């Protein structure tokens, strides 16, 4: 039990008007917590509050009642007895008469009314008493916004939970509600107002009820708000948006059919308004009202609504998009205009309700019939006048909606309009474009009807739409084919090609087993489209349209795996597409074959399997042909197919949940072929084929489970150990240079392929004989084989540490692997040969770090060692290992040229660029796709640890030669660091960033680094958190940027520099005005730049600076 003195302090703090809001809130929370946890009973609280609840001091009484109400609000889920609830109801409903304490009374009543039956709720008689007191004492519209909101919430809750009890109040209730909500303007209160009227309409305003006298009065309140015109102050987050209000008002207006005589005329009148929002809302409300009021009440308005719908569609409908690259599967795609969308939705709703009347109005409509007749006189789309095109599209959309809405309306369209259209399609004459367009809209609407309502498919046999479609199917097929032939004879017109191909596509995509079009037509459609694929690759627009149509058809029929259509598609499209890869005597270019292969393969899992099986055979046959005949054509085929597999087919297999069995088998087949072929990837020193195989291997391994990865790695290791000359059991004897022990192209290719598999494995995947493989990768990366270096980095990244609790599947810990890499001594002989030793006291024995610092006096060897160290460092950095600091210091040491340590400039450049490897996001390895271990914020930590080191070295390094490479390393580090980190230390970093920009402007090889730095600077300039630092350094920033405006080596550098100057113009006038002349003079040079994008930015920048 709470101590009385403690409770008194809380109460005094809350009711004391001198207490701060935070003190009052804390006291309320404390009291509520005591009651909620049973440390204080509600009765004890009321006794303690008695003097505050009954005092004549208005302020204290109001605060006391408010405290009790707020406590009740906090214990709504706490069980209370019926006697206690009744007592509280009596108290609070009486307090509704006390206008000075009204807020507390409202909160208390609302908290009681919201209680649920399981914890004790207000009795019906008490609820009625609250309503009576509410109507008697509260003048809602005279209250402030918050109290009005509480009042309306209370009224809304009473209507929702006690509607049966308060229904007997009759006229008093309706008058009170009208008075409470009339002239309300606050958005939050209006949401409650509309919901209250919606509840009244649903609960009490029935056509057969006795409360019809108040319908007009209630609707008068609603009518004043339509259409909703609501704007909230700029910069204020509004809890209620216009759309919320509009939906709430729509629900209120459509809540009862008794509103029909008032609502429908109002909406029809507003539909003729010039106000765009009024038109949209009118259409939305008409649709909602027609659904709620019922067909009987709406029928008398149909003749008035139809012309308005037709005029709206005609006025606002855009031209159809005849591009296959943008158009969707169904017809010509829905309109993007909201008015048209709503008009068509209303039309569909009215057809569902009043099918016979509205359909007859449309069929007999003079404009519709004139359009159909007029269209028959124009042969091509371009022949049709602009206004006639709009009418044609309007009629097409209307027929589409009619055909897709109901079976009866679809039958009427086919019987009265479709047959009329088809009678104008004379086989011996040239087919008119407009007629085929209307056919497509009707066919697609009919297809949608059957597809979206599967139950209708089994009632089609004797339906008019089915018989008519079956009767005209051959004529339609011939018409669509003929328009394609005509369009090709003249010129590649978009609309004609689109209509012809889209028509064939829709014909082929009616539901399978109840398809009203003969199967022979389906087969002919596939043959026609495939003939375009094979023969018409020179007609790009037609070829791409045909391929897209085949894709949609294949995707559709793949849903019916065992149907005759699916089998026909497989034999006529999928298998022929696969066979095209092996046929060289057709005019279809290889790139087109590959594109067709990828599109057709992604139509379904079974089709993909067929495609993959064919692709595998062609790839290995091409590789064999490359080895046997040195065929460049076969080389190109293999490379493009491998690229297609890795970039398109394999991602689709993963996304669609296909079995990884084929992926594993393909990877294993690559290793089998590599092991059996004595010339694997050897003939091409540019390694295009090897690169393609490596990419396939990486993405294949990465997409498999650990068990499957183990299978692939084991096969790979078997080939590496038994089918090459590496002799892994004697790897320590292999020299570093090729002088005595030369490595064949084949062995190098297999090692690179093996490295690519290792790069992509999961941390839990087992790598056999990993210790020996580390030795091999160390040796091979020093020979310049970059995948070996990347494999070393990946292994280091994924090995478990001794201190880690992670379970490891390998026989080596991270610490042991690092010891192997950094402690293994390499012996450099006097004849420039190197071999691994066991730590003997040979004078030329050195570790990899010695090689990085030039200990071997071999530039190429030093560069390779730095390259390897950078990838090893990246692996350590990403997993958060401290060893990265030592590696970073070694790389920095390679950037510093001293008398004791003279370094080659190329070596220093590679050392500086190693920081780009460390910090950048790599696509080839050590990323999320290839299961790298990535510790959060690793870039931020590395940046924070390295910047003090860089700054110290910059101040100490006297030769400008070393300073250049240090700045290059710094540039890589800060360019690849997240912007938010840079912003936190922008004041100190901006001078360093500007020094990098100044030093790196001279060498053309630095142009990409320069661009990266400018992007970083741009991010600082445009972020509000960088404004202060920019303002302090405005002068030196502008000086630096003006020197880059005419940078000759990269357009993006000039363009970004000008954009940065434009951002600088936003700084305070007094800060940048002294540099105005300098900037304008610099920008004047860019106005004559040879690149248009630079000139455009220069004009914008000059305009901005001229205003200062």
From TrEMBL:
MMS19 C-terminal domain location, by residue? Answer: 674-1064
Q: Which SUPFAM superfamilies match?
A: ARM repeat
List UniProt keywords, sorted A-Z.
Answer: DNA damage, DNA repair, Nucleus, Repeat
Intracellular or extracellular location(s): Nucleus
Keyword DNA damage attached = yes
Residues in coiled coil = none
Predominant place of localization: nucleus
Q: Where is the MMS19 N-terminal domain?
A: 46-313
Family from the record: Belongs to the MET18/MMS19 family.
Q: What does the record give as the function of this protein? A: Key component of the cytosolic iron-sulfur protein assembly (CIA) complex, a multiprotein complex that mediates the incorporation of iron-sulfur cluster into apoproteins specifically involved in DNA metabolism and genomic integrity. In the CIA complex, MMS19 acts as an adapter between early-acting CIA components and a subset of cellular target iron-sulfur proteins.
What is the name of this protein?
MMS19 nucleotide excision repair protein
Highest classification ranks of the organism: Eukaryota, Viridiplantae, Streptophyta, Embryophyta, Tracheophyta
């Amino acid at each position: 039990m709470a101590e009385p003195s403690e409770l008194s302090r809380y109460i005094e703090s809350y009711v004391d008007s001198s207490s701060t809001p935070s003190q009052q809130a804390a006291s309320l929370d404390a009291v509520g917590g005591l009651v909620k946890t049973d440390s204080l009973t509600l009765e004890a609280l009321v006794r303690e509050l008695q003097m505050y609840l009954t005092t004549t001091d208005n302020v204290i009484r109001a605060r006391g009642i408010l405290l009790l109400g707020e406590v009740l609000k906090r214990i709504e889920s706490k069980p209370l007895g019926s006697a206690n609830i009744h007592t509280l109801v009596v108290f609070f409903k009486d307090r509704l008469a006390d206008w000075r304490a009204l807020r507390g009374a409202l909160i208390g009543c609302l908290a009681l009314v919201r209680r649920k039956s399981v914890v004790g709720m207000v009795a019906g008689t008490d609820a009625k008493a609250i309503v009576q007191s509410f109507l008697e004492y509260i003048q809602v519209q005279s209250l402030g916004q918050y109290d009005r909101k509480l009042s309306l919430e209370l009224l809304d809750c009473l209507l929702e939970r006690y509607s049966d009890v308060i229904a007997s109040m009759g006229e008093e209730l309706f008058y009170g509600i009208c008075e409470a909500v009339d002239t309300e303007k606050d958005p939050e209160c209006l949401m409650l107002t509309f919901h209250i009227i919606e509840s009244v309409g649903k609960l009490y305003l029935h056509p057969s009820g006795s409360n019809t006298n108040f319908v007009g009065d209630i609707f008068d309140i609603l009518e004043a708000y339509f259409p909703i015109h609501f704007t909230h102050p700029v910069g204020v987050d509004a809890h209620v948006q216009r759309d919320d209000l509009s939906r709430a008002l729509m629900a209120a207006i459509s809540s009862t059919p008794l509103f029909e005589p008032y609502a429908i005329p109002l909406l029809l009148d507003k539909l003729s308004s010039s106000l765009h929002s009024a038109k949209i809302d009118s259409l939305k409300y008409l649709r909602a009202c027609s659904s709620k009021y019922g067909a009987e009440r709406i029928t008398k308005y149909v003749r008035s609504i139809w012309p308005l719908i037709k005029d709206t569609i005609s006025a606002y409908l855009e031209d159809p998009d005849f591009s296959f690259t943008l158009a969707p599967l169904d017809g010509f795609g829905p309109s993007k205009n909201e008015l048209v969308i709503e008009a068509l939705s209303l039309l569909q709703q009215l057809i569902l309700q009043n099918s016979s009347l509205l359909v007859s109005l449309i069929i007999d409509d003079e404009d519709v019939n004139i359009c159909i007749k007029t269209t028959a006189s124009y042969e091509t789309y371009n022949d049709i006048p602009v206004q006639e095109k709009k009418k044609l599209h309007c009629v097409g959309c209307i027929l589409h909606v009619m055909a897709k809405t109901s079976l009866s309306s679809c039958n009427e369209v086919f019987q009265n309009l479709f047959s009329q259209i088809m009678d104008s399609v004379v086989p011996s004459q040239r087919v008119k474009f407009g007629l085929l367009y209307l056919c497509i809209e009707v066919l697609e609407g009919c297809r949608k009807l059957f597809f979206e309502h599967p139950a209708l498919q089994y009632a089609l046999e004797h339906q008019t739409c089915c018989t008519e479609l079956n009767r005209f199917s051959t004529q339609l097929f011939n018409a669509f084919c003929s328009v394609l032939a005509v369009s090709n004879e003249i010129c590649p017109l978009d609309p004609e090609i689109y209509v012809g191909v889209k028509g064939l596509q829709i014909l082929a995509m009616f539901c399978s087993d109840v398809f009203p079009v003969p199967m022979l037509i389906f087969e002919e459609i596939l043959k026609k489209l495939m003939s375009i694929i094979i023969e018409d690759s020179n007609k790009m627009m037609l070829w791409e349209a045909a391929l897209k149509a085949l894709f949609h058809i294949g995707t559709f029929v793949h849903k019916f795996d065992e149907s005759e259509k699916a089998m026909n598609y497989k034999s006529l499209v999928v298998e022929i597409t696969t066979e095209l890869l092996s046929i060289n005597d057709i005019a279809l270019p290889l790139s087109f074959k590959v594109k067709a292969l990828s599109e057709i393969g992604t139509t379904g899992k079974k089709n993909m399997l067929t495609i993959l099986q064919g692709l595998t055979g062609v790839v290995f046959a091409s590789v064999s042909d490359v080895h046997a005949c040195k065929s460049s054509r076969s080389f190109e085929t293999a490379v493009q197919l491998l690229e297609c597999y890795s970039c398109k087919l394999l991602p689709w297999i993963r996304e669609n949940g296909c079995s990884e069995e084929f992926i594993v088998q393909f990877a294993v087949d690559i290793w089998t072929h590599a092991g059996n072929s004595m010339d694997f990837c050897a003939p091409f020193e540019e390694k295009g084929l090897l690169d393609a195989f490596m990419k396939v291997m990486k993405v294949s391994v990465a997409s498999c489970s650990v068990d499957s990865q183990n299978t692939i790695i084991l096969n790979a290791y078997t080939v590496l150990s038994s089918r090459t000359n590496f002799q892994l059991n004697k790897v320590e004897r292999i020299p570093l240079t090729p002088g005595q022990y030369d490595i064949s192209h084949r062995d190098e290719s297999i090692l690179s392929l093996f490295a690519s598999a290792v790069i992509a494995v999961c941390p839990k995947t087992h790598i056999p004989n990993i210790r020996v493989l580390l030795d091999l990768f160390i040796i091979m990366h020093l020979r310049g084989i970059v995948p070996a270096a990347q494999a070393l980095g990946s292994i280091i990244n994924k090995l478990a540490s001794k201190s880690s609790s992670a379970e490891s599947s390998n026989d080596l810990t991270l610490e042991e692997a690092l010891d192997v890499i950094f402690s293994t001594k390499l012996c450099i002989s006097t004849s420039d040969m190197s071999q691994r030793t066991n730590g003997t006291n040979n004078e030329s024995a050195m570790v990899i770090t010695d090689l990085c610092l030039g200990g071997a006096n071999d530039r190429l060897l030093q560069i390779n060692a730095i390259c390897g160290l950078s990838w090893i460092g990246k692996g350590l950095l990403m997993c958060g290992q401290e060893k990265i600091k030592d590696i970073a210091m070694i790389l920095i040491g390679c950037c510093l040229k001293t008398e004791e340590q003279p370094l080659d400039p190329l070596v220093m450049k590679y050392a500086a660029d190693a920081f780009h490897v460390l910090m950048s996001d790599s696509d080839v390895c050590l990323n999320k796709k290839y299961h790298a271990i990535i510790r959060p914020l690793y870039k931020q930590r590395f940046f924070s640890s390295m910047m003090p080191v860089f700054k110290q070295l910059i101040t100490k390094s006297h030769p400008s030669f070393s300073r250049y490479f240090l700045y290059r390393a710094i540039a890589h580090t800060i360019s690849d660091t997240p912007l938010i980190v840079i912003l936190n230390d922008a004041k100190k970093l901006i001078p360093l960033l500007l020094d990098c920009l100044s030093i790196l402007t001279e060498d053309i090889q630095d142009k990409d680094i320069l661009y990266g730095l400018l992007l970083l600077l741009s991010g600082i300039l445009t972020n509000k958190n960088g404004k202060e630092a920019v303002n302090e350094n405005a002068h030196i920033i502008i000086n630096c940027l003006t020197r880059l405006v005419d940078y000759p080596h990269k357009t993006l550098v000039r363009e970004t520099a000008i954009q940065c100057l434009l951002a600088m113009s936003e700084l305070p006038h007094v800060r940048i005005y002294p540099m105005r002349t300098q900037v304008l003079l610099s920008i004047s040079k860019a106005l004559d730049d040879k690149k248009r994008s630079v000139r455009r930015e220069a004009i914008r920048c000059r305009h901005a600076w001229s205003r200062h």
